[in-house]
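Sample intake sheet
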Amino acid sequence: MGFSSGYSSLACAVRGATLALSVLVSPALLAAPTQHFSIPAGPLGQVLSNFAAKAGINLAIDPSLVQGRKSPGLEGDVALASGFARLLSGSGLREASRGDGVYVLEPVPGGDASIEIDPIQINATSQLQENGTGPVAGYVALRTTVGTKTDTPINEVPQSISVITRDEMDQRGVQDFNSAVAYTPGIRVLDYAGGQGAPDIFMRGFRAFNLFGIYQDGLRSGFNQYDTNFETFGLERLDVIKGPASVLFGQMAPGGVVNMTSKRPQETPIHHVEVQGGSFERRQFGLDIGDQLDSVGTLFGRIVMVQRDSDTQVDHSPDDRTYIAPSLTWKPDDANTLTLLTSYNKSKTGGSEQSFPAIGTVLKSPNGHINSDINLGWRGSYYHVETTSVGSIFEHQFDNGWKFQQNLRYMHSKVGYLSSGPDVVLNDDGRTQDVGLQYRPKNSDTFMADNNLQGSFNTGAIDHTLIAGIDYSHYKAKESRRNGDPDPDFEMLDLYQPVYGGRAIWYDPLQRDTRSKMQQVGAYVQDQIKLDRWALTIGGREDWVTAHEQGLYFGTQNNDTQQRDHKLTGRIGLAYLFDNGVTPYASYSTSFQPNPDTDVSGAMFKPTEGKQYEVGIKYQPPGYNSSVTVSAFDLTQKNVTTTDPLNSGFSVQSGEVRSRGVEVEGKASLTSNLNVLASYAYTDAEITEDSRYKGNTPRAIPRNTAGVWLDYTIDAGVFDGLGAGVGQRYMGSSQNIQNTVKAPHYTLTDATLRYDLGKVGLKGSKISITGTNLFEKHYFEPGFYEDSVLYGSRRNVIATLSHDW
């Protein structure tokens, strides 16, 4: 599909989404009266009675309609209709007014509100009170912990926050991290087909390599890009905070943090199994089972499993995985909760470096176009990683309302990596590359802990939510690297007529044989202050980081370096919560990121520092399950290392990068059948200080990105049970660091089609077909090296048959 037609389609879709979202900001809705409710979760009849009493209405409840049902409860300022909608979500019931403040309950037409409770027909998330880490019904999350480490309404956090829920991932057919965040503004993840390691993520113009921006269950997901990877089938949600957040998380890239929440035990039974098949001979089995394990309701368990065997668009490069994640929650009483989270993740992919030359891809070549399935390395190269993780989350609720929380995780990773790739991007003949090899096995151990105390109290008319804590991280790794080549007959690879084979020839001494250690301690405190409609968030943190590396380079050069850093970071932000759901906010926040490099004299560099000014408006219209966020930011990172102009091969710490932009995101469930999301980001990033690249745009950062997704399910008539979704993603052009190679802009189309087989007698069964890059658009992204690009992901179609019981 050409750009013009793709852009027109995207523009039409965005206009449609904008029109739909504009309904949410009508004057009538702005004037809708609201009332504050604080009703805990519980049996539906009891929760509704409490709601009616608080709202000052009369509600007639037929016990047969609510028997055996639960409600998520209600917390916040909402209109009457919105309160009913939240409390009855997924129950198959609705309220009906009889006038004069009298209401009754009745079944939704076409729904099932009979006494017999069918767990398949009840959305499991609707039976739980929404919290900042738990399941969410639909696309719109109202609470999060990623912005404050406390369970807080999103509109009170003075920074832009996006949440990708499990329901959204399921409807869009998400299969990996890249597709999970594909419609989230401000994030760019490189589609490195057949590549190695965890996702390579950019946020608000800044790269978060080595997992400086990816967390899991509130703790950093690791400390090295090649030690781990992620399985999205095992995730409940992804919460994204944009901009510096070191006040909460310590050392990090300035662009923000993505926190992945693992699936964990729920009080509602979960019984799900699915099989998949699709492009590149993909075959996958998935299992998600959870239930109460005792008779008194104190012990709950869950196990999530994935077994995948698949090829990829790159020849001789598999995508195989075994993932097992058992979890257990113990609630001996109302005051204590202990959740154990464990996982085993073993993946096998190719080990070839897939940076294609610009000539023959984005630039013309007399030899023609290089195919996307070419393996640019040695056929025997591989990347195998085996990660075992054991963690726990413990909470103790004191009688006075304060809470102690401890979050722990130990992770062991074993990496087998035989990498291969070109010694130069392209030889002078314009069609061949010289292939080199490197064998680089590695073992690493990671331990992390976060302990905090949080509680609420008043000082006169001012409400406080205070959290104070200490977190600790320790990482150690042992790695060796040995260089080699394929035998001479296969050392040169013809990119247009590749021939693979030959044995490996290895050289002595080892290129490196090192042991690395990193230790970090952070102490933080934050106060969320509310006075009437004002919400002030203020916090500070001090970090101490020690990094030590020792070992040999090329057998003789001894390396023994130690770096110590400490840094104070903070945030202050103010929001005002209008009754009509509009919340303007402003904030200032900082971050730091250790820099392990040294200058020509051997002196260690200071950490890079980030600072951001952000203003925005969040809108949650009363009576509608929807959310809109508009934010503008000015973000700068200083102390960036750049090439030493006087000493070749060394760096100086005089660089600076600035990023300014605007982001817009809207998500809504306009009806129970229609979900829509739309996003746009404008990012003006520039290298403002550098000895070589001053004035350039940073690598892989597009100026404009946009996306829109609409999903509709038919619940009546001959097509009852049929659902479909369609989306388009636009990515503006981006460049390499030298700004000499441009990857053109592109528009990709995604779609999904599903059918509830229960409508034809197969109760609990569903079938779906999902396609990404449906029109097989060939696109490219800037590569890791000069004059190189990465091939984008080709069309991928996957069919899924699932069953719930």
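Comment: Residues 1-32, 112-128 have pLDDT under 50 and may be disordered. The two ends are 41 Å apart (CA to CA).
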